[in-house]
Amino acid sequence: MSLKEFSNLNRNKTILNLCKDTFDLVVIGGGITGAGIALDASSRGLKVALIEKNDFASGTSSKSTKLIHGGLRYLKQFDFWLVKEVGSERAIVHKLAPHLVLPEKMLLPLMENGSYGKWLTSIGLKVYDILAQVTDEDKRQMLEKEDALILEPLLPTKNLNGAGYYAEYRTDDARLTIENIKTSLNYDTTALNYASVEEFIYTDKKITGVVVKDAVSGSEFKIKSKYVVSATGPWVDDLRAVNNSNKGKHLYLTKGVHLVFPYEKLPVQQSVYFDIPDGRMMFAIPRGNTTYVGTTDTHYTENKDKVKTDLADAMYLISAVNNMFPTIELSLDDIVSSWAGLRPLIHEEGKSASELSRKDEIFTSDTGLISIAGGKLTGYRKMAERVVDRVVKLVEEADSTKELKSCHTDEIPLCKNAFKNAKEVKEYILEITSRIQADGFKAHDAWFLVTNYAKQTEVVLETYALINDKDIKVRLAKAELLFCIHYEMIQNPMDFFIRRTGRLYFDIESIRYLMDPILEEFKKVFKLSDNKIEDYRQELEHEIDEHSNFSLNRD
Predict the structure, then answer these.
(1) Would you say residue 78 has pLDDT above 80?
(2) What Å distances lie between residue 21 and 11, 15, 24, 47, 309, CA to CA?
(3) What is d(CA 480, CA 503) in angstroms, rounded to the nearest whole number?
(4) Longest Cα–Cα distance in the chain
(5) DSSP 471
(6) Are 85 and 377 in contact (CB under 8 A)?
(7) CATH number for the segment(s) 8-60+174-250+358-411
């Protein structure tokens, strides 16, 4: 398989290209929205630079509930437009990356005095099916109590009136982001992480570029561009302040927290969307050898760069799970990992966090800075389309001879059209299982490889065959690492363990096992000093502790 190299080993060359060219568009922010904008704009014919101050997807785009879902809860707010748009988008994104966007049946228990009554749920799910254009096999079913308990024996027999059963999709948000960026490289995008926009460059009071600080070398450089878009999520208002345009509507940040447990501690048979005592709703989602739960929705005003799960968050979620599943008695000691992220919502006077709309909004300053805020993971492609439509209009007004394509990202598959549908994904997982089981790997290992890398798994396994190491787990992890170094722009071990592989969240013990050999490989490939490797070791140990240690005497 031929892949376009995308590596920080070529960082100086990438920066040189950013400095010498004039771009049609600079996109600030390497989360899912920025990634979607870069792909949309470059596929229409624009020359694009994508700049991210940390790692790609290191903000909100690696800390969502990891669902491409239709927004059933927004029916309660009568937000039919949003339900229709994100519902339709689920099917499109599944088509573009069926290995990353996986069908997931969702069970909605109907409890006595709960948020959803049987009759209204039946009508609501029917409307949901229509708005979201749900296909026959995934259309909603209404279940009696006995049938609901067969599907999920952990549900309480007391106060259970039945359940709704409907379709959603599960994803890996960080992988979806990186695959959008990698796909944009096949057009005319140049992307760089660990590079922060410090200032804007102006000509005749209009933005004509940005001043960027390279976090690796500490040096600054300039990028010339005709237009600039800020897709920085929670940091949108910060960039508007640099541009002296932070007025009018502003962001309202809320914190969403998720906890991860060993599957045997919370062995739900499929995803469950359930009531909690304070009137909110929560997800419990099985994933591999774990089950994760979430989320919270609390106003956040602290450091945006250091969002973490605190003891109160953990106890709140555990209490909610134990309340719903009476035979489950989770405790703080059962938490194996967690994550916390921010939702950048548009402030509306008099509304609580859970009542605020998840719609996106575009702001354009007098100097030409285009900012997009709000929105949902599921709607990233349409958000990108709306932003790029605005940029294209400006481009064509400035140059009537310029002919650009219309949006067609709904026809651009990620991972080079690796699979046509979910059936092909399952068949390939079985094939990989048969090929690696002789070395001692299990079906779960094949599932992990394919749902992470699609048919890029072939490149990983080719590298695996060349590595000389008796420990098969270490050998495969090194092969993954080398793939991510050469084709996915990782700069440090945290990029690898957290965002490219999700191990910090869903296989945290493997980090402890793999830390030494992975750090050794990093040292060799990047030619790092012992002191730098020790810094990385301490940072990894800190991340593990912060995400998994919830003892009452925690610092």
Answers:
(1) no
(2) 16, 10, 10, 9, 42
(3) 12
(4) 71
(5) -
(6) no
(7) 3.50.50.60
d(CA 503, CA 516): 15
| CA-only gyration radius of the chain, Å | 23
Q: Which of 228, 202, 317 is nearest to 25 (CA)?
A: 228
Classify the phi-psi angles of 154: left when phi > 0, otherwise alpha if psi is within -120 to 50, otherwise beta. alpha
Domain boundaries, the chain: 8-60+174-250+358-411, 103-170+251-353, 422-548
Q: What is the pLDDT of residues 202-249, one digit of tens each?
A: 999 999 999 999 999 999 999 999 999 999 999 999 999 999 898 878
- Residue 29 tokens read as 């922010």
Q: How far is the C-alpha of 223 from the C-alpha of 212, rounded, in Å?
A: 7
On whether the CB atoms of residues 184 and 35 are closer than 8 A, the answer is yes
What is the arithmetic mean of pLDDT over 45-61?
Answer: 97
Which two structure tokens, joined as six digits, stand for 155? 């549900």
The answer to whether the bond into 60 is cis (omega within 30° of 0) is no
Q: Does the structural domain 422-548 have CATH classification 1.10.8.870?
A: yes
> What pLDDT sits at residue 357?
60
Contact predicate 181/190, CB 8 Å: no
- 554: tokens are 């925690």
pTM of the model: 0.94
Residues 6+ apart with CB under 8 A from 315: 332
Q: Return the sign of the alpha-carbon dihedral for residues 418, 424, 428, 431.
A: negative
Q: Are 265 and 305 in contact (CB under 8 A)?
A: no
DSSP output for 415-429: TTT--SSHHHHHHHH
Given a cut of 70, whether residue 95 has pLDDT beyond it is yes
- Start-to-end CA distance of the chain, whole Å, equals 48
Q: 103-170+251-353: what fold?
A: D-Amino Acid Oxidase; Chain A, domain 2 (3.30.9)
pLDDT at 355 over 60: no
Mean pLDDT of the chain: 91
For residues 301, 306, 307 and 313, what is the CA-based torsion angle, rounded to 10 degrees? -100
